[in-house]
């Protein structure tokens, strides 16, 4: 049971990226899925969440720029990130709780720099 994130990379300020989070060993249809990020030297912070009914929530720092999505058939969640800023730099992780256990991925690095 694990997540595998991908899609990170180096992007210039104002650019866009789409991160993917594939679930392996379990289905995602009935679980909440969140994205978190951790900048160098800082604590991990919550970024966005999508519920099984496709309702979404965002942190104030990304609302209007990021979009969280899910494809239950593909057992994959996505994070579309637009108008990226150097403050968005960090390792991005997806998270859920299933079967009473926390599931995290290994993260994907996003670097916003000119």
Give a quick set of tags describing it.
mainly beta; 4-stranded antiparallel sheet; 114 residues; 7-stranded mixed sheet; globular
Write up this protein.
By secondary structure, the chain is mainly beta. It is 0% helix and 54% strand. The chain contains no helices and eleven strands. Strands 2, 4, 5, 6, 9, 10 and 11 form a seven-stranded mixed β-sheet that branches. Strands 1-3-8-7 form a four-stranded antiparallel β-sheet, with no helix packed on it. Strand 4 (33-38) and strand 5 form a beta hairpin. The termini are far apart. 30% of the residues are buried. The mean pLDDT is 97.
Question: Quick gist of this model?
Answer:
This protein is mostly beta strands and 114 residues long. It has no helices and 11 strands. Strands 2, 4, 5, 6, 9, 10 and 11 form a 7-stranded mixed sheet that branches. Strands 1-3-8-7 form a 4-stranded antiparallel sheet, with no helix packed on it.
